[in-house]
Design goal:
Rossmann fold, single chain, Glutamine Phosphoribosylpyrophosphate, subunit 1, domain 1, alpha+beta, globular, 629 residues
Length: 629
């Protein structure tokens, strides 16, 4: 696991400044504290920071082909590299290391830009072909590893994190008003945009080629969808195949030359990963965070699974004091605002886990792949809700819901009812983003008038509408699953996990996002995944008899934190400082009166604005750290 960055020039004779490459590389030292490497030659400069996982002595980067004309810097893991390496050796290539990174330069010699279709894993890499004066940037199929880029003053500047790009003297830090509005709506900025006008994200399965000063960007893979009329195995056969593929996926991710463990929340996803890891390896360690607030705590379930599987289990308590210390520093972890408050416990779990191991497997992707979120049940209930006349819904039901007493517990009943009603009258895909995000339609008056005037409403939901159209399945839920994989998973969940773990120099692996598993499960119709309102029906069937029934049948809790309570108590001074009238007016992004109303209603117990307030706070903290030159 590493961090990468670099510069390619439109001037074939210009060599990027080594001192600038070093500054860019130092900005992401947390991603790879074990080693660093550089390449600077006419046309391009590459840099990387390395976290040693495989081939500890021989994996120094950049790595080159036999004659040194092709070099690569790489972030991630290629899980089928042994097979690819053997094929390349048989074709006559000579390897100098055991590193998975080295297969890329030789595979490029064989396949050219098509090399990305022949490797599977989590990765972002930059490959420089000095003979053809060509730079190639690529990301893995689901976007587990990040890569950002911009063209500034004739240079293509790229890096794993925005931190690196911002050090280039020609890269501007202007906030994009539409990206800010999208952040308020989704709680993240959907790819390929970033919060900055001038910088882009390479999309998942993205392939970018820089040649003679011109950049072309495309994609080489997409998530499959069910094909109408194509026979599907029966439920039992699907469950058996899911278990077989997951077993292989976990085994592939247990390859490591350093200590390895499992993030174990006690939910079905992480418990599934832990089960197959314990089956393959006898000395598995598992890690969990315990919350003092019982409505957020899942530690009892994690302990149950650990005991059932016989793992060596580690647990740390997350209290308000630890959160109070970490919350003001959230922007140090995030160089783009992300309104998912679970970044904090994810970071603390990563920091605790890193004391024991260097690699951790988790259950990310299970909810989107197997239909685990309550929103999937809610989408099916919408048709029933809409049988009620619109006037009755508006004047009776919605009014009654607005009068419900506020309960600040984790995913409380009133929170779920309010969320359902807020989106039930909306069409897809807006309904889905309203249920998952913060600020809904009609609530962007929180933006200052000057900023609001620059936002094109037609572009606000462009990312969701594009994914919704591309989903193109007949069944609504099949399209929702595709939508969540393309947006919420890729731009929220995976970003959160990458930034939190890499801030602690910990590699995270996601077996449930194995390409083979994703391609198999995505082709199964959603009716088998959400059966009679039963979430994760197929995964539960696959794990029945392998995990305790109590774990398989318990309601989903989620990895949240008590933001609502802390905003009124321990973190109240921070919210009041960062969202004060003077501060908001000075920055000019938000309407101070609207922000104060939201804060006041929450503090007085008149409304539960936990998501809105956290989204605003994170932007303010981010702005202090990164938006000012």
């Amino acid at each position: 696991m590493c961090g990468i960055c670099g510069i390619a020039s439109s001037d074939a004779g210009a060599t990027p400044e080594t001192a600038l490459l070093r500054r860019m590389n130092d900005a992401i030292a947390h991603r790879g504290p074990d080693d660093e490497g550089y390449h600077a030659s006419p046309g391009a400069g590459l840099a990387m920071r390395r976290l040693k996982i495989i081939d500890l002595e021989g994996g120094h980067q950049p790595l080159y082909n036999e004659d040194g004309t092709i070099g690569v810097v790489f972030n991630g893991e290629i899980y089928d590299f042994d097979k690819v390496r053997d094929e390349l050796i048989a074709a006559g290539h000579t390897f100098q290391t055991r590193s998975d990174t080295e297969v890329l330069v030789h595979l490029y010699e064989e396949k050219g830009e098509e090399l990305v279709k022949h490797v599977h894993g989590m990765f972002a890499f930059a490959l420089w072909d000095s003979r053809r004066r060509k730079l190639i940037l690529a990301r893995d199929r689901l976007g587990k590893k990040p890569l950002h880029y911009t063209v500034a003053a004739g240079d293509l500047v790229f890096g794993s994190e925005l931190k690196s790009l911002l050090l280039h003297p020609s890269v501007r830090r202007d906030v994009d008003p539409t990206s800010l509005a999208r952040y308020l709506h989704y709680e993240y900025v959907p790819a390929p945009d970033t919060i900055f006008r001038s910088i882009r994200k390479l999309p998942p399965a993205g392939l970018a080629v820089w040649h003679e000063g011109k950049l072309t960007v495309g994609t080489y893979w997409d998530i499959p969808r069910p094909i109408p009329g194509v026979p599907v195995p029966c439920e039992e056969e699907c469950a058996e195949e899911i278990a077989r593929i997951t077993d292989r996926a976990v085994r592939r991710r247990l390859v490591s030359d350093v200590p390895l463990g499992i993030f174990l929340s006690g939910g079905i996803d992480s418990s599934t990963v832990a089960y197959f890891a314990a089956k393959a390896k006898s000395d598995i360690q598992t890690f969990n965070i315990r919350f003092e607030d019982p409505s957020f705590d899942e530690s009892v379930w994690a302990r149950m699974v650990a005991k059932h599987l016989g793992t060596e289990h580690f647990e740390e308590t997350l209290d308000a004091r630890a959160m109070l210390e970490l919350a003001p520093r959230v922007a140090e972890i995030l160089d783009e605002p992300l309104g998912d408050a679970s970044i904090l416990p994810t970071y603390l779990l990563s920091r605790y886990t890193r004391r024991h191991v260097t690699v951790a497997l988790g259950g990310d992707g299970g909810d989107e792949l197997f239909a685990g979120y309550p929103t999937y049940q809610a989408h099916r209930l919408v048709s029933l809700y809409r049988l009620v006349p619109a006037s009755l819904r508006r004047h009776v039901i919605e009014r009654a819901v607005s009068l419900l007493p506020v309960n600040l517990s984790n995913i409380s009943l009133d929170f779920k009812i309010r969320k359902f009603v807020s989106g039930a009258s909306l069409e897809m895909p807006l309904r889905n983003s309203v249920w998952l995000g913060s600020f809904g339609p009609g609530e962007l008056d929180v933006l200052a008038p000057g900023m609001r005037a620059q936002v094109e409403d037609a572009r606000l939901a462009h990312a969701a509408e594009a994914a919704w159209t591309a989903g193109s399945a007949e069944d609504l839920l099949d399209r929702v699953l595709y939508l969540d994989m393309k947006l919420y998973l890729q731009d929220d969940i995976l970003v959160k996990v990458d930034r939190a773990t890499m801030a602690c120099s910990l590699e995270a692996r996601a077996p449930l996002l194995d390409t083979e598993l994703v391609e198999f499960v995505s082709r199964i119709p959603a009716r088998l995944k959400l059966k009679r309102m039963r979430t994760k029906n197929l995964l539960k069937a696959a794990m029945r008899g392998k995990l305790p029934d109590e774990v398989l049948d318990r309601p989903k809790k989620g990895f949240g934190i008590p933001v609502a309570q802390w905003a009124k108590n321990e973190l109240r001074p921070l919210f009041e400082e960062k969202l004060s009238v003077a501060r908001v007016q000075a920055d000019g992004y938000f309407d101070a009166a609207v922000v104060q109303r939201i804060l006041r209603e929450h503090l007085e117990g008149k409304a539960d604005h936990r998501k809105k307030l956290w989204t605003l706070l994170v932007f303010q903290l981010w702005h202090d750290k990164w938006a000012k030159a």
